[in-house]
Amino acid sequence: MKIWVEASEERLAGNFRVVAEAAGAETEVLAVVKANAYGHGIERCAAMLTRAGARWLGVTCAGEGERVRWALMANASRLGDTWKPEILVMCGFLPEDVETILEQGLTPVVWTAEQVEWLRGYEELRVHVEVDTGMGRQGVRSGAELDLLLAEIEDAGLVLDGVLTHFCSSEAAGSELTQAQQRRFEAAVAQVRERGLKPAWVHAGNSSTVDNPAQERPWLVELAQSVGARAMVRSGLALYGYCLLIEEAGAGCMQPKVRRALRPAMQWKTRVLAVRELAAGETVGYGAAFTAAAAMHVALLPVGYADGLRRELSSSSERPGGWVMVRDRRAAILGRVSMNLTVLDVTGIEGVAAGDEVVLLGDGITAEDHARLAGTIPYEILCGVRER
Hints:
The protein is α/β, with parallel strands linked by helices.
């Protein structure tokens, strides 16, 4: 294997415990494994997080849910009584997905009358209703729209198992936007209560919500209890060892507990393909962006932007770029990262040879390092990782 991902079960489990402790005993933690578990491998991470105690897993679509269910079944002997967590299909579905939802025991998120109609006839199927409180993506608005949707859910014989929303600025301390969303969600939950419906779950918030010291976490617990439900948060990024910085944090919000305690769970690796000497004056890569000022020892990696190694990590003679880890030492990227090949400066690193293991992402080089150089966020770096 020239490029592969290693996911640490010890670190995943440790991160899950950190999030669960921060969320509090009265709040369930849904472990988000969508987008191939943020590049870590959905099948293996679903099993690992289930063993760590996750009773809910969140996936993008019914197809991912099916992959997770089959992976858990394959690990049933190691999971014991915990092998069958609930799986929430978070990002919608189409009519052709209904059969998979039913066969695999998935719980769909719904927010349109059309979705409810596709599920009509499957009585006692549990659904979660998403309320749009300000994201402007998916979700039903509170008020008349929500009343109509709840009536159609009842008429279709479906069970309202959960009510949820998603915050658009949970990484901002004391956000007025979040406070406004909370008020809208309160109104929506009140509508559910007035109809006499009793969902089992009320959930909102991501990793940043849990990590934000200014966030009113008791608020969610109290809101859930108002309809006899249990509170739940949906954590993804933190499980894999990262959390966004809390913006505009005051003196009391500078050091969130979660971020400090997390450990990156991924090691993304490759092997040296070849080594060579570069003479002074020779150039490297497309556009001859890098010119050697002196003799150098360089290594070639069989990885590039087609594999998820961002082109923004490229360097030139005037500007340094990214780095990777070779024999526990930093090796700078030389020239432009190309589609499937990247050149490293291994001058001064003794004994580098073809076949040596190289850490592209992990200890010594984090997704935050990549994100800073690429002008993006750790989410995009992790989700862009590809194995082959």
